[in-house]
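Run log, item B.
One chain of 137 residues. Sequence copied directly from the ordering sheet:
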Amino acid sequence: MTTDRTRALPILVVAFNGKVYGLEPTTGREVWRYEIDGAVPGIAFDGDRVYATGFGALAALDYLTGRELWRVKPAFGANKSIVIAQGGLVFVAWTGEVECFTRDGQRLWAQPFKGEGYAETAMGFPGNFVQAFVDAR
């Protein structure tokens, strides 16, 4: 018997227009929805969690249900943020500013790169990379 916790295929997570969706991959049926406030939310995965960023927010969601586990306001904020999760840590970046949180939402450090300017940002580890582009429109 397949339960939600032992489903055969993973949930497809899609983020756009300030929302994060969990979809059934074989049917496209919406399993869950979460609003994060931001035109282009960023998402990352770490085991049973989805981390989502939006305008001035970082949230941890249960991967299978979309239930919010915690939500914090990072020190830096912009609409186009990027996020990666690695080794039990969550890293968030906005136009050259980077912040690190624990899996439980505790801020460990923030690096504003003072005096370096603001621009498109990329960050990552081998095999876990993300880049944000500034919308030129």
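Observations after the first pass:
- The chain has no helices and 13 strands.
- The chain has one domain: 10-123.
Flagged for discussion on Thursday.
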